[in-house]
Specification:
The chain has 9 helices and no strands. The protein is mainly α and 389 residues long. The chain has a domain at 121-361.
């Protein structure tokens, strides 16, 4: 379909899985009046989705290869959102305040140009935010378990010369029981932390697998749509044998559709790359927070425990237990930071990038170029044939 008709499509187009886009800008990098600022993030839940099994609603090829002029108008308006939308060098929604971060600016541009892909982008964005939220909880729980273990060591050191000594009937036995309590506390800390990490890792891997399944579904559907649209341009000859102008208009629409589907695949990849970049950056900075918060918890604990008054019953024994507790606290703090870190390699494996259909595999440039080549060859053959008559 050409750019001759820029009338916005009506909202009543029946039975289409393709959203009715905002009014598309005219060709020539011209802008439209009263242009709405694009959203900074994809909508978290967007139809069409399957609510029960969580799988995105499949692309209906009949929506794209229809002969209904109204449906073609809706699709053409979506195509124009990408090809006619000039890049905002200075975004009109920004003020004199702090400009958008680049990933926000990039997301706004994609949201405006590809509203049809908002459902899968919402899933990708939601995945990234869930990973970050789980990372915050994971780091917070690690510091909490570290603090509880350190408090347990301090309690054992205080109770050793007093309560434990009274229970066992002697100071040596009380001190030994306090050391045993510290070891048990360290073991409980390790066991609880390991169990929580297994749950954290399982959740990350499960979310990664679910997202990968939906991306694989969408990219394969786009690949099939691309392949069929490429073939239909020539196959339409049988439908328009005596209507050259109709065949030309149909071929124009299908060629634009092929280029747009390729662009959808490309920007879906770019959006996924950007969201996963955010996840990696957030993990990097959370590791720095861990590097700072782990010794901070230890220093706060030590600043209180070091000045704790020694029991009159056995001050020397208490000081010895303080040294043992300090050694245990240092070991536990190091383990709390060094172990049970976010398994990015496992997440990467579960995402299964090798199973995604990539934009480069579509070979868009050679596909369009080969179509032009075959048309030129057929034109020359037709001219040679008519000259021979």
């Amino acid at each position: 379909m050409s750019h001759e008709d820029q009338t916005p499509p009506s909202a009543g187009t029946p039975n289409l899985t393709i959203p009715v886009s905002q009014p598309a800008p005219p060709p020539g990098a011209a802008d439209i009046p009263d242009r709405a600022p694009p959203p900074a993030t994809p909508p978290p839940t967007r139809e069409p989705v399957g609510a029960r099994d969580g799988i995105l609603r499949p692309i209906q090829e009949s929506d794209y290869f229809t002969m209904d002029p109204e449906a073609i108008q809706v699709i053409s308006a979506n195509i124009d959102q990408y090809f006619n939308q000039a890049l905002d060098i200075f975004p009109f929604w920004e003020t004199e305040n702090k400009p958008d971060r680049f990933h926000v600016l990039f997301t706004r541009q994609i949201e405006e140009r590809f509203p049809v892909e908002a459902d899968i982008r919402g899933r990708i964005h939601g995945y990234g935010r869930r990973v970050f939220a789980a990372l915050l909880v994971h780091v917070g729980i690690k510091r909490l378990t570290q603090a509880l273990a350190l408090i347990g060591f301090a309690v054992m050191a205080v109770l050793g010369p007093t309560l434990f000594a009274d229970w066992t009937g002697g100071q040596p036995q009380g001190l030994g029981l306090a050391v045993l309590g510290m070891l048990i506390t360290a073991g409980v800390f390790y066991g609880v932390s390991a169990i929580l990490f297994v749950q954290y890792r399982f959740r990350l891997e499960n979310d990664s697998y679910e997202l990968s399944r939906e991306i694989v579904q969408r990219t394969r559907e786009l690949q099939n749509l691309f392949t069929n649209a490429r073939a239909l341009s020539d196959q339409a000859e049988t439908q328009f044998q005596m209507d050259g102008k109709g065949w030309g208009q149909r071929a124009l629409y299908l060629t634009r559709l092929v280029m747009w589907i390729g662009a959808r695949m490309e920007y879906l990849e770019k959006f996924a790359q950007m969201e996963l970049w955010r996840v990696r950056r957030e993990r990097y900075w959370m590791r720095w927070i861990g590097r700072l918060s782990t010794p901070l918890v230890l220093v706060i604990w030590l600043s209180v425990f070091a000045f704790w008054p020694a029991p009159a019953a056995n001050e020397v024994g208490f000081r010895v237990l303080q040294l043992v507790a300090l050694a245990m606290a240092v070991i536990v703090s190091w383990i709390s930071y060094a172990r049970w870190q976010t398994p990015t390699a496992a997440v990467k494996d579960k995402l299964g990038l090798d199973g995604w259909v990539r934009y480069a595999s579509l070979d868009v440039d050679n596909t369009i170029g080969d179509q032009v080549r075959r048309d030129k060859e057929r034109l020359v053959e037709y001219r040679a044939l008519t000259r021979g008559r």
